[in-house]
Design goal:
Helices cover about 20% and strands about 25% of the residues. The chain is an alpha+beta fold and about 180 residues long.
């Protein structure tokens, strides 16, 4: 036997049919589009729970709020938690007048209330209206106690008390200065 007889030539490669190539490419792209549309729809219809503002925020253990007049600010939830006469309130940081961020007025580590730096509206330590152009007291968020922690639901805002409704201190905060 010769070496020539043992080697058989491979047939020459066939050129790819253009029509078949395009047909297969369109099918692959169509399947990829359907998979992407399904994944996007799944992400839209199953949103992740909000963390921080717009969801439920853990404000810490109840023991952090046992001292009378305690006020703590939570940046991620945009609210203050205050304690007055054993009751807890979560107050939205936004002034009901024009939406400025209301500041906490501290005197010797104890809160004296809140004051809006834009137009001077003043509120007591539980967010009730005392003076200024605001139409009502500070808006609030619902609070619940779960496993010994204060949980604040920032997904629903409760309108603050009307002018003239005062169950807390009636003295305006003096430590923030006066006027606008």
């Amino acid at each position: 036997m010769n070496d020539d007889e043992k080697t058989t030539e491979a047939p020459p490669p066939q050129p790819v049919d253009r029509r078949e190539f395009l047909s297969t490419t369109w099918k692959v792209l169509g399947v990829a589009l359907i998979v992407e549309a399904g994944w996007t729809s799944y992400d839209i219809l199953n949103p992740k729970p909000a963390v921080g503002f717009g969801g439920t925020v853990d404000a810490g253990p109840v023991e952090d709020f046992l001292t009378e007049g305690t006020v703590k600010y939570f940046l991620d939830g945009r609210f203050y938690v205050t304690q007055f006469q054993g009751g807890l309130r979560a107050l939205f940081q936004k002034c009901p007048h024009l939406g400025c961020k209301v500041g906490d007025c501290n005197t010797a580590g104890e809160s004296a209330g809140f004051r809006c730096p834009c137009h001077g509206s003043q509120y007591n330590v539980i967010g009730e209206y005392l003076s200024g152009p605001a139409p009502r007291g500070m808006d609030r968020f619902p609070i619940s106690i779960e496993n010994g922690h204060v949980m604040v639901d920032t997904s629903s805002v409760v309108e603050g008390p009307a002018r003239g409704v005062l169950t807390g201190p009636t003295e305006p905060p003096t430590s923030c200065g006066s006027g606008a």
